Amino acid sequence: MHHTIFDTPVVNTLLRAFSVATLRLTGWRIEGALPSHAAKSVLIAAPHTSNWDLPYTLMLAFTLRLRVYWMGKHSLFRAPFGGVMRWLGGIPVNREQSTNLVARSAQTIRDATGPMQLIVPPEGTRGKTRHWKTGFYFIAQQAGVPIVLAFVDYGRKVGGLGPVFEPTGDLDADMAAIKAFYAPIQGKNPTQFEA
What angle do the packed helices 101-111 and 135-143 form, to 10 degrees? Predict the structure, then answer.
């Protein structure tokens, strides 16, 4: 995987301090921690309803000392911001092309030599949608890693890591359990989220 801001020692330390201070000063609380058995994992990023989700997610990642990569639509990676987005841990995804993303992502997680958390927004968009994409589930299953239910709850001003979920292979039952966790969580634009 490419080098990111999370691998840059001095910058990482400064941004962690900035993130902790900013979240505290703005009234946000952090819940949860990443268990050691989930050092390699897939994190669900839900609800995803606003452009503000990325800065809050990155501040939470710094605060929780994570080493994240996140998937975003390919148009975010155009010049002049493409290099910065990649340095922030971004991985461009072109939803209009079939690129075997699930298999490649699972292989990347398996091949990682250290901790790696891949953040995937299951809605696939900030807009209102009733259907969650299942790529995150199959990435975790193929990589043999757990799914961590990460969240940014704007209603309570709480963000963090919820339960660690092990895929059972029963997609329908597992998706129902995962969506049940997210049902009470409020996105920045709550009318655009439906768990």
Answer: 40
